[in-house]
Amino acid sequence: MPGSKLVIPHDTPDIHELYTLTSGKNLGEGQFGTTYLCTEKSSGVKYACKSIDKVKLICREDYEDVWREIQIMHHLSEHPEVVEIRGAYEDDKCVYIVMELCGGGELFDRIIKKGHYSEKAAARIFKVVVKMVQACHSLGVMHRDLKPENFLFLSKDDDSVLKATDFGLSIFYRPGEIYSEVVGSPYYVAPEVLLKSYGPEIDVWSAGIILYILLSGVPPFWAENEAGIFKEILKGPLDLESEPWPEVSQSAKDLIKKMLERNPKKRYTVHDVLCHPWILDDNVAPDRPMDSAVLSRLHHFSQMNRLKKMALRFIIEKLSEEEIGGLKELFKMIDGDNNGIITFKELKQSLQKDAISQLTEIQIQSLMDAADTNSNGTIEYSEFIAATLHMNKVLKEENLKSAFSFFDKDETGYITINQLKKAGHHFGLNDGHLDDMNIELNQNYNGRIDYNEFAAMMKNGNEAQ
Q1: Residues involved in catalysis
Q2: Which residues bind ATP (predicted)?
Q3: Would you list which residues are annotated within the binding site?
Q4: Per-residue model confidence as pLDDT tens digits over 208-258
């Protein structure tokens, strides 16, 4: 099996034609491979390349884990708190994941160097950690291995941006489902992981451990060996009394207690953490937590005109499996009865669970109607992907040109209403939708739209519905 079986289920370009991998520039070691410095030949821009040796992938699950890591990185990488993936490649010997280069080193190393952080500095760093966890959870991902070693600074500056990396143990999860695989790193693992019965609450525990270390320089549960550490995690006292804790604010200690609550049902959620006074009270305007990624993307989609929505439906058919794999899992998560469509009830349940703001049924119905482009009363898989795909994945020049050509089949250099009608029938749109597009085309583009106008429309953030 090793060396012959494929991790990526389609052919990829030869990485050595696109990038120069710098031997001797080893940026880190992992379970399956090594991360190197690499340079894109066409631009000269430097990236990090994680090279995974396929000889070390000894069973089917190992191959699946690497493929899932690639999908999850694509799924999350538009978030500013996550290292951006540039692409994944494979040959007979290795799988290569090319990603943004973070040259400032690990958060772990900075903690060691500093001893511990001031509360203000700790709050700034910790917000990044928690916002990354929120991004994961709102997109249906459980990280399962949060620790300071998995956060990298973009530069060596004191105020450098911090980004999460290494999603090798992350999985897509379904709400209410119980997981039993023991994973993670000894100091950071939640008690319910050791008891083999857990859900996404484990990431809040691990984040709480990181906060404790940021403020004190040491982990809260410590022993000479792994068995001892696990015993302390399950039953040991939480020390918030000895040095340096007398100098730490009550607010910070309150947050740590609520994150390191052993009962996951009583433990703070990610939203609770982001709304805690210690996170908000840092002499700047309150940093209101974001609503879920699904909600914000549906809001954005609802502002788009029908031509743009139809173009997105075409473009998603051309995207690679890894680019949409995470959204496929997210669709399954919302589609509670697994019948291949999302109903109003299922969308309402998902949005009300994840949203900070209280959504009314009318607001949810409005978002449902926006995503339901063929007006059949449900959201189908392709409609969901179009409505929730991050726009940065869509707006590549080759995608826009391909979409324009799809409409302009007679190659006149313009999209006309007759061409739109033909394309609309391809996606099951009714005459009412096509009349709307006709009005829009006549009002905004004199009855026809050329490529430059089409590209500008696709890149514009908020067209009227």
Answers
A1: 145
A2: 50
A3: 50
A4: 999 999 899 889 999 889 999 999 999 999 999 988 899 999 999 999 999
Class (C level, CATH) for 15-99: alpha beta
Q: Name the one residue in this structure whose structure tokens are 């060996």.
A: 225
pTM tops 0.90, yes or no: no
Helices (H) and strands (E) in the chain, counts: 21, 13
Q: What is the bridge-based pairing of β-strands 379-380 and 341-342?
A: antiparallel
- How many other C-beta atoms lie within 10 A of the C-beta of residue 86? 19
Among 180, 79, 95, residue whose Cα is nearest residue 134: 79
CATH fold of 293-459 = Recoverin; domain 1 (1.10.238)
**What tokens does 11 get?**
């052919």
Q: Name the binding residues for ATP.
A: 50
Of the candidate ranges 148-157, 185-194, 413-422, the one whose mean pLDDT is the lowest:
413-422
Residue showing tokens 């995974």: 52
User: d(Cα 180, Cα 393) in Å, to the nearest integer?
Assistant: 34
Q: Where are the domains of the chain?
A: 15-99, 107-280, 293-459
Model pLDDT, residue 428: 65
Instruction: List, for residues 2-32, the tens digit of each pLDDT value.
Output: 445 789 988 899 999 999 988 766 677 766 6
